Amino acid sequence: MADTKEQFEKVISQCRELFEKKLKDYGPSWRIMRPQSLTDQIFIKANRIRSLEIKGVSMVDEGIRPEFVAIVNYGVIGLIQLAKGFADTTDISNEEALALYDKYITETKELMYAKNHDYGEAWRGMRISSYTDLILMKLYRTKQIESHGGKTIVSEGVDANYMDMINYALFGLIKLEYGEEAVDN
């Protein structure tokens, strides 16, 4: 699992770096977004990945990797918004936004490490396209939960689905960075 932790740290660092740069450009303007809007934004990104996977060609000069990064970052923003609620203005500083990013990406990463222990890194044997499909499934689940006012009977809530989407996107980024082959541990 040492390889996994190192790989996770590297791709998370890349996602955080972009998040920080966008904060410098726009500030935490995303504070006005309701969680449902963030779910829809992730939905757009996941659908674009699936479209690119199926078509194999992009008309816009961006590939799959930036979309997985966006899913990670929008997922973290979603977790922040669930915890803080949305605002009518940008009511936090860039520094607070980064601290919240670090808090929620760490919680998500720790969940992945626990699941990774239990599942024995099964994700390494999966295809990137499967991560895309699982993210889309989680999005449909999230939309359903949101349509029920966030209430579930036996299922995990929106926050758990955001964390799973983030982790599937991180798996995709690791595979894109290090190759499709499983790593022997």
Automatic annotation (TrEMBL):
It comes from the Bacteria. InterPro entries: DUF1599. Residues 22-82, 115-176 form the Nucleotide modification associated domain. This is DUF1599 domain-containing protein.
